[in-house]
Amino acid sequence: MDKRALRGLRRAVGRHNALTEPADLLLYSYDSSTARGMPGAVVLPASTEEVAAVVKVCAQHGIPFVARGAGTNLSGGSAPIRGGVVIALSRMNRVLDLDLPNQRAVVEAGVVNLDLQNILAPHGLQFCPDPASQKASTIGGNVAENAGGPHCLKYGVTVNHVLGLTVVLPSGDIRRFGSKAEDAPGYDLVGLFVGSEGTFGVTTEMVLRLRPLPESTQIVVAFFDTLEAAGGAVSRIIAAGMVPAALEIMDKATIEAVEASFPSGLPTDVEAVLLIEVEGLEGALDGQAERCASICRELEARSAEIGRTPEERERLWSARRSAFGATARLSPAMLVTDATVPRTRLPEVLRQIQQIERKHGLRIAKIFHAGDGNLHSNILFDRDDPDGLRRAEAAATEIFHVAAGVEGTITGEHGVGAEKPRFMSLIYSREDIEAQRKVQRVFDPAGIANPGKVLPEPEAAAEGTA
Ligand SMILES: Cc1cc2nc3c(=O)[nH]c(=O)nc-3n(C[C@H](O)[C@H](O)[C@H](O)COP(=O)(O)OP(=O)(O)OC[C@H]3O[C@@H](n4cnc5c(N)ncnc54)[C@H](O)[C@@H]3O)c2cc1C
User: Fold this and answer.
1) How far is the CA of 237 from the centre of ligand 1 (A)?
2) C-alpha of residue 355 to centroid of ligand 1, in Å
3) CA separation (Å) from 304 to 35, 202, 234, 259?
4) pLDDT tens string 147-204
């Protein structure tokens, strides 16, 4: 890294918070995807002003920068694939304002999702987005990825719960969009920044909408002999006019992985488990839960039971939350895709994914936010097998084509990151992609904010090879 730039970074955050030792750089060279890239420096700012000072140095020297929360993203978003400066927001972890009467919170970007939930719960409140990574992932990362989670079926994804942002633009200027009020006048720049994956600048503070915790919840657990039947039950439940808080499916490979790592009492001889959570007023729940269970039985679920105790509910949810980690232990490497399809198309898409699995001789563990049609195909492979990554990528490519072919999309919540720009052309025309690029350039004309992410290179998009 240029010596003058490094001096500038040290001045911005203090010598101890600007890391350049090879071991430190290595730690920030990857995230939870397969993408990698070595940064020239890592900085740990403690305030919006320090972030602005860092970004100004990057702008002056034309150095790329990558904002980083907890690095849990699954698409290469926070991997510094073009080198440059990693801006790690872990020291910016304060809740700045808890406005209980108005059900608002103002937080710094590095606040961990579950830490916020734990602060809110005693007040009977929650921040609805609940990614399964919530023990580690930050609100800044959730906002940048427009994260979803099991309960986003009922409440909507992150963008529905963010009212205001403080951002540092790629020029180093600080700007504020939105406010605590419901409907900010002018253009919806909050909506534009949410999900922009760090390519418009660094978000440092956010105004969040909170909601009351439900008075009561009930969980139904159903076991099926085919994945398709479980997928069919999801469509039928929603077609019956119910909107459960969550509808989650795990397949046999995932159940086996969970039971091997975090035994939860799930049967390993079934093909799928469907978790259905309903919530609301105490008296209304029994009827709804029973209707969901009877739809599952009509679709020949081996069993469909209502979990009666909070302990049972917690046991099932912790099985679901541990599923990614457990699956990752099945093989040396895992390529995660989160293609999303209209939920009525789930059964046929599942059939096609099973064919892809057989064709490439791979094991694909499937976990999905089924209510949203958001299908996580976790492709297991061995990096040491020279053909392993190639076959995994070939299978992922085919899965994206299948999803696009049924009017689905290449990512439901994990972002495009570094792994999926080349698949954007399955969803958008060249002109559509160029329109998006023009928006990105308004904020970042020099192309230094998380370059190489989200959009394909102009030449690739122009050739239609993206
Ligand atoms: C086990 C597991 C389960 C998961 N479950 C879910 C799930 O249920 N739902 C879901 O949506 N995702 C899930 N994910 C993916 C991931 O946790 C989310 O994308 C999460 O929002 C990332 O947050 P993070 O703090 O780790 O951000 P990072 O991974 O550090 O960054 C993600 C992206 O956001 C950008 N970014 C981070 N902070 C900022 C900021 N302050 N300003 C601007 N840009 C920023 C980064 O540059 C990067 O592009 C899961 C991941 C794992 C490993």
Assistant:
1) 30
2) 30
3) 41, 46, 13, 19
4) 998 888 889 999 999 999 999 999 999 999 999 998 889 999 999 999 999 999 999 9
